[in-house]
């Protein structure tokens, strides 16, 4: 069965979705990613969806679920590269992915993850 | 109504189509309705010729149902020229007169043909009038639709002109909205905003609603949609230009702007945007400053 | 309403949902829809094709090009999703945001409706469901 590749970049995992996913592939990505977060002790996950021409409620829900699961596993998720037409359609559909952090592209997403990590390290070190 | 294949009108058209065409053309160009500034004699000749030949084959079919398939070629010709005239700025009566002006030359011929048969003359004139009237009404309907399309297109063009997205600073966009925000406009606002976010890599957009007359629940929903779409692309929005009455309406109507950051003025919003970029506006040391009412700045003494 | 073109496609697997998206996209492009309108109709098609598969146990979609006789430059894309599944007992309820029988987000029907110009649904318990949407250029 086909799989979407997950790359490890330092503390982070990078997933670039490049195919028009059918639902089972989306579900397997969810499984693979949570397993990789645990095995690599990743602190951040970047999901690049710049190649996706649509995001429907199924994919939208998958993104939200991945972010929530990653949070439980102590990793931040940033969804990057959503196309303008996709963003407009998703909002019209009634999905604004409130629990998911977003960035314009992979570079910005990586900055966001790094600054988030630094803030967390400072928070851990200093008194509450 | 007569539906036999040998209707006198078919015969009239068949008898001398060329002469009829000339007559009709002369009639059309002689009236004040002829817009020599908008259409040439050659174009009119071509349209008239095409109409007559379509009319003739429709009549030859023996069907007189103008809405039926046999009359499709006639409707096509009328549709083309009425739509074109709507675009070119002809008035409704100038457009309809194309079809109606055919009555006179047709009646003259029917009169000659039935000079001694008043009963048949009356019948065929009545028949012709009814046919031409229905084609004329069709022409008016198409004209009307053409005008509507034109108005819609112009509205869209105006919408696009009226929703500029400007760059205030590197990474900071401003979107000054003027006028009411309906769903069609929201769509264009969103498209413009999101495209500019992609083009400039902006991280913050300020939507200024100083020029929006009222903010009701629906307008707020539209605003929130734009904010949500921008966020999906990784950009934060600040809504500025909330006038006192707007603030009151928002609270009275119970409009929920959610977690969106709002500021009274564009200047306030700009300051927040700069701060988030790690920037600030500072006075130049030693420079003379005009004693005008600059916005109060907590940073100053 | 005159139909200029017609295409039909069965929906039996989750791969078919992907294919339906691609076919609808191709039609929307050929009809000259702008990018946002293409995305909206393809997204709506994806939601409805998935419904046909998951709730209707499979079915088919009929894709048609529409025109307006009086206004011949006007073009629309009509999609009819049909299944012979269990049907929807309470259509009003199914059209509400957040109502779901499959553990999903419950945005399939209601969301698809918001993404189109015309929407109609005809469902008979025990006989099947037919959802027709259209979007005009």
Descriptive notes:
The complex is a heterotrimer of chains A (128), B (301) and C (137). Chain A is α/β, with parallel strands linked by helices and 128 residues long. Chain A is 50% helix and 17% strand. Chain A is built from four helices and five strands, in the order ββαβαβαβα. Chain A has helices at residues 23-40, 57-72, 84-93, 106-125; strands at 6-9, 12-16, 44-48, 76-80, 101-103. Chain A has a five-stranded mixed β-sheet with strand order 1-2-3-4-5, sandwiched between helices. Chain A is globular and about 40 Å long. Chain A starts with 5 loop residues before the first strand and ends with a helix. The model of chain A has no long low-confidence stretch (mean pLDDT 90). Chain B is elongated and about 105 Å long. Chain B has 301 residues and is α/β, with parallel strands linked by helices. The longest helix of chain B has 44 residues, at 118-161. Residues 1-5 and 297-301 of chain B have low confidence and may be disordered. Chain C is α+β, with helices and mostly antiparallel strands and 137 residues long. In chain C, a hairpin with a 3-residue loop joins strand 4 and strand 5. The model of chain C has no long low-confidence stretch (mean pLDDT 91).
Number of helices of chain A: 4
State the separation between the terminal residues of chain A, measured CA to CA: 47 Å
Q: What characterizes the major β-sheet of chain A?
A: 5 strands, mixed
Number of strands of chain A: 5
Query: Could you give the count of β-strands of chain B?
Result: 5
* Widest beta sheet: strand line-up of chain B: 1-2-3-4-5
Order of helices and strands of chain A: EEHEHEHEH
Which sheet architecture does the biggest sheet of chain B show? 5 strands, mixed
The residue fraction in helices of chain B comes out at 55-70%
- Shape call of chain B: elongated
Secondary-structure map:
The complex is a heterotrimer of chains A (128), B (301) and C (137).
Chain A: E1 6-9, E2 12-16, H1 23-40, E3 44-48, H2 57-72, E4 76-80, H3 84-93, E5 101-103, H4 106-125
Parallel strand pairs in A: 2-3, 3-4, 4-5
Antiparallel strand pairs in A: 1-2
Helix pairs in contact in A: 1-2
Chain B: H1 8-15, H2 17-30, H3 41-60, H4 72-88, H5 92-100, H6 103-113, H7 118-161, E1 166-169, E2 172-178, H8 183-200, E3 204-211, H9 217-232, E4 236-240, H10 244-252, E5 261-262, H11 266-276
Chain C: E1 3-11, H1 14-30, H2 35-54, E2 59-67, E3 75-83, H3 91-94, H4 108-114, E4 118-124, E5 128-136
Antiparallel strand pairs in C: 1-2, 2-3, 3-5, 4-5
